[in-house]
Specification:
This protein has 520 residues and is an all-alpha fold. It has a domain of 50 residues. The radius of gyration is 24 Å and the shape is globular.
Length: 520
Amino acid sequence: MIDIKILCFLLGRAMFSMSIMYILPICYALFTNQSEKILSFFVMLMIISAIAATILTYKSTGYRQRIKIIESALTMILVWILLTIFGSIPFMVTNWLSPFEAILETVSDLTAAGLSLLSPDAPYILKLWQASLMWLGSFVFLSILVTILPEVSGCFGLELSLNQGQIFSPMIGQMRSMARKILLIYEVLTLISFIMFKLAGLNNFDALSMAMRCISTGGGDFFPGRGNVYIEYAAMFSMLIACGNFLLYFRLINTIIPPVSSLHLKKIGMKNFAKRIHNLIIEFFMLIKRNCLSNLKIFFNNSEVQFLLVSIFFGTSIILFTTFTKKYIFDGNEAFRLALFHVISYISTTGFNLVDLTNAPDFDRFFLFLIVTIGGCMGSVTGGLKVIRVIILFKLFKIETLKTIHPKMITSIKISGAAVPMKIVGRVLAFFFLCSVTMFLFAIILSLSGQSFSTSVAMSLACLTNTGILPGICDPSDFIALPAVMKLFCCLILIVGRMEIFAFLIVILFAHSNRDRQQW
């Protein structure tokens, strides 16, 4: 049986987070002297969300402390539906989007796809609400990633990172502890990104909006200060750290400050007290230096980080080469900056564009189409396959090729020196197969709306990878032109892509299974 109380508890936590996010548009309305009608509207929504969170929390009294797989999968679906209902209200009530467009816009923001169906002249407060939904969506996704998703998918690549010292458990208490740790890192990185944009010359609200869009990999068409290289490099840095493994970040940051037990406190006596304190301070900072150097070594020796950086380097080099051969851009510095920016933007599935890429060489647009499928590291907020899975697929291809030549060869796949269990390899293959089949199946259904098959494939891939747009292949206008039913179908694709397919399949199998429900 499904424990409704535990579902209410988890959904209540999500609704509480939603109520907090209304603070940003409320602050903007206060500081910019917006009309009382707008201010009272967002205050009312915050109160309603808080009441809904309170009711759900009250209904969860006495919930079970252990969560089942089916309950995890149901939560992953219901949380997006519930947040979409409340998040779409500002877009609908202000009449800037039709109900179906508002729902698609909200789902794309919550899943960090950032379709940006709003027109460029939409009120700034709605742009801020966009950024808030993107940040909240990735905030919730990170919570799911380190608590519920491991139960549903067996962690996939997460359990490859055993050296991170993280243990995933279906116990609610341990799930809370893990979520607090990772979400603290997410908030700190957002603050760092905000400071960088602020130093680059943006005002407070623009800096916060850009920080939320970059760290969440939501993107969109909001990019103030185009042409300012400092803002562009701040965006590149923010998108790049969003590609990283937040579990790895936590481990590195958590070990920088040495524990008190590692210091020689017993040596402090009254004799030569000042000198001993001085030596203790030196020892403390030497330990911090040693830990920092050790952590940098661990970080750059990580297979995912190495593959990601190498991919960005070669991707930038390839686009630079085609740019000069096609004579698209003549200035070397500008060409390098644009190439690096767009490679980071699309490998992180953020989807920011500095220039109109519809006139870019076909090879460049197709190359960006390919790198979107890679995504960031496992444990990041990006979409795509994730780097660790791509590494496994490449190594599996190499091993199977060698075994064809040498049938008796005994081989194993290793990541960072650790052998990958065949169970994990099988899951990666299953995930890749399901992604491919799902993408083409969704593309066939989208083509029924009158779109060309190539555009339908691009739209399907953009939704499954949570990129939203692919330059010169599909853009928000293609989604706006869809019938209402197809817009809702795109919402389904976005949610399936964010949940990594398996949670959706588990719910379907549970609904149609005639087996003993206790197995779930």
